[in-house]
Design goal:
By secondary structure, this protein is mainly beta. It contains 2 helices and 17 strands. It folds into 2 domains: 116 residues, Lipocalin (Beta Barrel); 106 residues, no CATH class. 8% of the residues lie in helices and 50% in strands. An 8-stranded antiparallel barrel has the order 1-2-3-4-5-6-7-8.
């Protein structure tokens, strides 16, 4: 079963009735974990299955490999766990854990403030400081608002690329207006896939925002769109000859 279908089925069961108001509250940060520069994005919820109230994605600038996050928030304090592999991603964040999560012992602790966040990252006896500055934000839960350039580091990745969506406020609302294919080696975008959707639906399916682009096999990615009864997807295939993705026609 393809991940897009699994995610869609989960969303429709868990989120029925929330589509009209919108539910994305996302803040993006840049800073460091110890001496290492990082970029981090967090999406907060009132409640999201198994006691999860925050999910996110972050990557070390040097590696460019997104790491999925989930955890709990108590006021301004967040405790975040890291997803180890695709199996854990499916179990905890795509299908949803059937038991309440326990964030005890998770490596990342943050205290949010007006301009960013500070905290610690712990692994075994290693403990390093985390310092983050807020650089952008997106909120479509009431009046659609975007501050700064909102680039979402999707959880999906390939051996050579990470994928990031640029979200913009248009006349029709907030949506992803382009998908950046970023080389892990050069850290630069090698392709921009643009969405000329007058209804502004790209990247806005009722799923964690980081799941709005997914991978179907090793050379096909799918982009989620809201609309209709349950949204829809568009697939793009990778061409080794050109080194780019091309829209697939069903």
């Amino acid at each position: 079963m393809g991940r897009s279908f699994v995610a869609l089925a989960f969303c429709m069961l868990a989120l029925t009735g929330q589509a009209a108001a919108g539910w994305y509250q996302v803040k993006n940060f840049e800073g460091s974990v110890g001496p290492s520069p990082v970029h981090l994005s967090l999406q907060r919820y009132d409640s999201f299955g198994s006691g999860i109230t925050v999910e996110g994605s972050y990557f070390y600038d040097a590696k460019q490999s997104p790491i999925a996050l989930y955890g709990k928030s108590e006021g301004t304090k967040l405790t975040l766990c890291e997803i180890a592999d695709d199996k854990e991603l499916d179990r905890v964040l795509v299908m949803g854990s059937k038991t309440p999560i326990d964030a005890t012992g998770c490596p990342l602790s943050l205290d949010l403030h007006e301009s960013g966040a500070t905290g610690i990252w712990v692994k075994g006896s290693e403990k390093v400081p985390v310092v983050l500055k807020q650089v952008a934000a997106l909120d479509d839960t009431a009046e659609a608002k975007i501050n700064g350039i909102v680039e979402i580091p999707f959880w999906v990745q390939t051996a050579t690329h990470r994928l990031a969506g640029v979200y913009t406020k248009t006349d029709a609302g907030i949506c992803m207006t382009k998908l950046q294919v970023i080389s892990k080696k050069t850290r630069k975008a090698v392709q921009s896939i643009r969405f000329d959707d007058e209804d502004c639906n790209a990247g806005m399916l009722m799923t964690p925002i980081y799941l709005n682009v997914q991978k179907q096999g090793e050379e096909i990615i799918s982009v989620n769109f809201r609309g209709g009864n349950g949204g829809y997807t568009t697939e793009y295939g990778f061409s080794p000859k050109t080194g780019t993705y091309h829209r697939l026609v069903n």
